[in-house]
C-alpha cells in the first residue's frame, strides 16, 4: 500500500506543478492584455481622429473580453489546483498512516524476533546444560563400571538332606554352569559349588572364596528358615536371623544373595541391610522353575547385563517355557540403589566406548 500512496502523492504533485505552470502562463497573458488595454485607452483619449478613436475603443473592448476570458481560466486553474492540493494532502495523510502502521509492524516483528531468539538461546543453553549433566552422569557410570572387578565368583551352596524330599539340585547347577559357559564373558564368572552343606561349611566357603554372589539352593521352610544338613545328613534348620548375621559378618565382597529356596522372600528382604541386592521366593518353587530361572539369570549376568535386566529375562524365560511361577521370585535392593544401577560383570571396553 505504501507504494500506491507514494505514487498518488507523486501524481497529485505533478498535476499541481503542471497547473501552477499553466496559471503562471495565464498570468503573463493577463498582464500583456492589461497592458494592451491601457495602451488602447490612452491612445483613444489622446487622438483627434474619430476613426482612430473608434479603432482604439474597439481594440479596448476586444482586449477587455480576452482579459476577462483569461481571468476566468485563471480562476478555473486555481480551483483545480485547490482540488489537487486537497487530494495531495489526503494522499500524504494516508501515506503517513501507512508508514506508521508499517513502522509499528516492523517494531513488533523485531520484538517478536528478539523474544524468539532469546527463547531459542535459552533452549539451547538448557539443552547444553542437560547434555553436560547427562555426559557427567554417563562418565560417572562408566567409571563405576570400570571399577568393577574383572571376574567374580558365584558360590553355589546346596543341601539336600536325606529326611527331606529329594530335589534335582545337580540339574540346577549343571544348567547354570552351561549357561555361564555360553555367555559372552564366561571367563569373568567362576562358579564354585559346595554340596551337602553344614553351617560351618558355609562360613568356610565364604572366607575361602570371597564370592560376589552367594546362591542357596535347596529347601526352605515357611518359618523363614533355610535347610542345611547336620553331620548325619539330616535336616538342619537355620533361622533368618542367623542368615542375616552371617551376611553382616561376611559381606565384604558379597553383592548379591540368591535364595533359590521356598519361602525365602523375608530372608532376601532382610539381608539387603548388608548387601546390595537379594532374590527370594515368596512361596514354594518347583524344581523346573528354580532351574530355568537361575540358568537364565546367570546367563544374562554373564553377558554383562544389569541386575534388573537379568531378573526380568529370567522371569520372561519362565513364561516362555510355560512355567506359571514367574511371580514367585522377588528382587530386593539396598536403600539408595535401583536394580538397573547394579552390574556385576564389567562390560567389554568397546561397550564402554560406545556409552561415552
Briefly note the CATH topology name of the largest domain: Rossmann fold
Number of strands: 9
The assigned structural class equals alpha/beta
Low-confidence runs of at least 5 consecutive residues: 350-356
- Oligomer designation: single chain
Tell me the overall shape: rod-shaped
From the structure above, extract its key features.
356 residues, alpha/beta, Rossmann fold, 2 domains, six-stranded mixed β-sheet, three-stranded antiparallel β-sheet, 9 helices, 12% strand, disordered C terminus
Describe the protein in words.
This protein is an alpha/beta fold and 356 residues long. The protein folds into two domains: 2-119; 150-355, Rossmann fold (3-Layer(aba) Sandwich). The protein is 62% helix and 12% strand. It is built from nine helices and nine strands. It has helices spanning 2-46, 50-146, 169-182, 199-209, 240-250, 265-271, 287-302, 307-320, 349-355, and strands at 152-158, 189-194, 213-217, 220-221, 225-229, 235-238, 256-260, 277-281, 329-333. It has a six-stranded mixed β-sheet, sandwiched between helices. Strands 4-5-6 form a three-stranded antiparallel β-sheet. Helix 1 (2-46) runs antiparallel to helix 2 and helix 5 (240-250) packs parallel to helix 6 (265-271). Residues 350-356 have low confidence and may be disordered.
Structure, briefly:
This protein has 356 residues and is α/β, with parallel strands linked by helices. The protein has helices at residues 2-46, 50-146, 169-182, 199-209, 240-250, 265-271, 287-302, 307-320, 349-355, and strands at residues 152-158, 189-194, 213-217, 220-221, 225-229, 235-238, 256-260, 277-281, 329-333. It is rod-shaped.
Amino acid at each position: 500500500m505504501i507504494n500506491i500512496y507514494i505514487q498518488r502523492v507523486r501524481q497529485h504533485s505533478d498535476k499541481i506543478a503542471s497547473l501552477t505552470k499553466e496559471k503562471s502562463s495565464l498570468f503573463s497573458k493577463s498582464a500583456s492584455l492589461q497592458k494592451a488595454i491601457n495602451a488602447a485607452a490612452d491612445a483613444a483619449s489622446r487622438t483627434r481622429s474619430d476613426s482612430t478613436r473608434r479603432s482604439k475603443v474597439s481594440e479596448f473592448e476586444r482586449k477587455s473580453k480576452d482579459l476577462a476570458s483569461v481571468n476566468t481560466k485563471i480562476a478555473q486553474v486555481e480551483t483545480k489546483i485547490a482540488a489537487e492540493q486537497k487530494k495531495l494532502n489526503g494522499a500524504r495523510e494516508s501515506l503517513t498512516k501507512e508508514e506508521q502502521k508499517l513502522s509499528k509492524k516492523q517494531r513488533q516483528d523485531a520484538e517478536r524476533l528478539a523474544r524468539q531468539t532469546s527463547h531459542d538461546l535459552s533452549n539451547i543453553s538448557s539443552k547444553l546444560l542437560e547434555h553436560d549433566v547427562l555426559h557427567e552422569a554417563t562418565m560417572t557410570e562408566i567409571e563405576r563400571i570400570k571399577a568393577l572387578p574383572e571376574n567374580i565368583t558365584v558360590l553355589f551352596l546346596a543341601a539336600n538332606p536325606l529326611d527331606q524330599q529329594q530335589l534335582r539340585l545337580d540339574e540346577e547347577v549343571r544348567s547354570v554352569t552351561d549357561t555361564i559357559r555360553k555367555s559372552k564373558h564366561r571367563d569373568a564368572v567362576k562358579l564354585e559349588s559346595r554340596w551337602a552343606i553344614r553351617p560351618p561349611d558355609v562360613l568356610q566357603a565364604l572366607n575361602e572364596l570371597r564370592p560376589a554372589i552367594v546362591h542357596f539352593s535347596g529347601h526352605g521352610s515357611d518359618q523363614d528358615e533355610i535347610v542345611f544338613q547336620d553331620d548325619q545328613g539330616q535336616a538342619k534348620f537355620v533361622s533368618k536371623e542367623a542368615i542375616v548375621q552371617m551376611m553382616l559378618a561376611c559381606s565384604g565382597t558379597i553383592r548379591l544373595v540368591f535364595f533359590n529356596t521356598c519361602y525365602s522372600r523375608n530372608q532376601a528382604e532382610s539381608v539387603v541391610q548388608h548387601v546390595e541386592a537379594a532374590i527370594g521366593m515368596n512361596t514354594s518353587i518347583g524344581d523346573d522353575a528354580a532351574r530355568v530361572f537361575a540358568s537364565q539369570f546367570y546367563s544374562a549376568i554373564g553377558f554383562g547385563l544389569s541386575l534388573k535386566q537379568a531378573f526380568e529375562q529370567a522371569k520372561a524365560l519362565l513364561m516362555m517355557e510355560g512355567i506359571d511361577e514367574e511371580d514367585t521370585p522377588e528382587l530386593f535392593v539396598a536403600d539408595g540403589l535401583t536394580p538397573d544401577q547394579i552390574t556385576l560383570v564389567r562390560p567389554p571396553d568397546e561397550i564402554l566406548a560406545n556409552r561415552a
